[in-house]
């Protein structure tokens, strides 16, 4: 029973330390929006053959 009490106390201490850190100085996100690719513009710049049987759009 003593071993369980020590594990529970250690878990409670670690949980409290985690939440104190998150509440006082949370991590800052470094994410940014990636530039999109305009596939229509790329297709129009390809200079496709006029006599070909495919159609880009």
From TrEMBL:
Protein name per the record: Uncharacterized protein
UniProt keyword annotations, A-Z: Signal
Keyword presence, Signal: yes
Signal peptide positions on this chain: 1-19
């Amino acid at each position: 029973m003593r071993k369980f009490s020590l594990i529970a106390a250690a878990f409670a201490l670690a949980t409290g330390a985690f939440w104190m850190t998150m509440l006082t100085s949370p991590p800052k996100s470094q994410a940014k929006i990636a530039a999109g690719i305009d596939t229509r513009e790329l297709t129009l710049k390809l200079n496709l053959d006029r006599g070909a049987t495919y159609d880009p759009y």
